[in-house]
Amino acid sequence: MDLIYLIIGMALVTYLPRVLPLVLFKNLSLAPYLKVFMRLVPYAALGALIIPGPFNTVSSQMFPTFIGFLAAIALAYYEYNLILIVAGSIFSSLVANLILT
Fold first, then answer.
1. 3-state class (DSSP) for residue 26
2. What is the CA radius of gyration of the chain?
3. Does the predicted TM-score (pTM) go above 0.90?
4. How many C-beta atoms lie closer than 10 Å to residue 94's C-beta?
5. Could you give the 3-state DSSP secondary structure of residue 74?
6. Where, by residue number, does the polypeptide cross the bilayer (predicted)?
7. CB of 85 within 8 A of CB of 46?
8. Could you give the angle at which helices 32-50 and 62-77 cross, rounded to 10 degrees?
9. What is the phi/psi pair of residue 28, to 5°?
10. Residue environment code for 71-92, b if the CB has 16+ CB neighbours within 10 A, otherwise e
């Protein structure tokens, strides 16, 4: 029974911080510059995740990694959906790796 209370407590601690801002601030209107800023946050996070990768690769995997990196930059430049950017980057790295081997 203690395990169930522990799971319920962990679910609440995880769920509440995600839901409360949505509930409390749903009618809040943002200034135009904040809307632009918030629109760019996912791309900044993607950059923080992707950019270190090519510089930390093994030399044998350098070419496919940079191909994926360039594909991610190109897709992000045209502001595609983040899932498409990640999928396109992975796919282009895979194709480059298959060509090399």
1. coil
2. 20
3. no
4. 13
5. helix
6. 6-24, 36-55, 61-78
7. yes
8. 170
9. -80, 130
10. bbeebbeeeeeeeebbebbeeb
Largest CA distance in the chain: 56
**What is the C-alpha separation between 11 and 15, in angstroms, rounded?**
6
Residue matched to tokens 């282009």 = 92
Q: Which letter does DSSP use for residue 27 in this model?
A: T
Cα 10 to the chain's mean position, in Å? 25
Q: How far apart are alpha carbons 94 and 88 in whole angstroms? A: 10
Instruction: Give the separation between CA 6 and CA 50, rounded to whole angstroms.
Output: 36
Amino acid (one-letter) located at 62: M
Separation between Cα atoms, residue 2 and residue 7, nearest integer Å: 9
